Amino acid sequence: xxxxVTGATGNVGRQVVEHLVKRGADVRxxxxxxxxxxxxxxxxxxxxxxxxxxxxxNAMSGVSTLFLLNAVVPDEFTQALIALNVARSAGIERIVYxxxxxxxxxxxxxxxxxxxxxxxxxxQMGFKATILRPAYFIQNDLTVKDVITGYGAYPMPIGPKGLxxxxxxxxxxxxxxxLLRREQATEPLALDxxxxxxxxxxxxxxxxAIWSDVLARPIHYGGDNTEGFEQNLKQFMPAWMAYDMRLMxxxxxxxxxxxxxxxxxxLTALLGRPLRSYxxxxxxxxxxx
Length: 289
Description:
Elements lengths: L1 E4 L5 H12 L4 E5 L12 E4 L5 H8 L2 E6 L7 H14 L4 E5 L11 H15 L3 E7 L10 H7 L1 E2 L13 H17 L7 E5 L7 H12 L4 E2 L4 H8 L5 H17 L7 H9 L6 H10 L2
């Protein structure tokens, strides 16, 4: 029985592969460029692309469980639907899909709306799936480390509602646990949705205060300007993506990313340990600089 991991060379996918291997799973990794596939020797690597149907058919042949992770790209929804249809044709029933928290709330944000559409298709197509809905990735803030340390400002538009930020390492481990739970079940398990959240819901000023403590100097929060956020992002990403991120930031300000009752306790029990905190991430980042 084989687990296929898509997005396997990305930050989450690579760690999912590693967790599965450590737990003795038979793992196949779908990659665009095999030269970047630095996996343990017993991982089967297959080259493919979500828009190359024949490559997907080859990759999914003989697979029992699928980890579906799509990058934020203009045709993300199309890519996911092709993958789901090929998976159904291949007889794959067991899926873990990486969506996003509040996909049904942030309806005007393109990559949220796309993921919610994929969730609906998973349900309508009758897949037995776990839909993982992560909040903001803590490690996203590595992209603004130099702004924090060099200019004394935390620039992300987090706002006053707060985000239940989660460490990418926790996301990957939970995904691996769910993949193995479905893979090892005698019968396909019922569809389930799990919010992936961190141990605290933090506002922009909360995060600035954490960095102030860790760096032992004042860091101020200055991130509510979503127009400026978009313009900064346009310096290193396509304009459509920068606008998508701006729309997401606007929903951060108005709605936040809040856990449901029992989310933290459920994840803690699933992992068998506490969730990693933002403060721990900040301290690790400073220590490794």
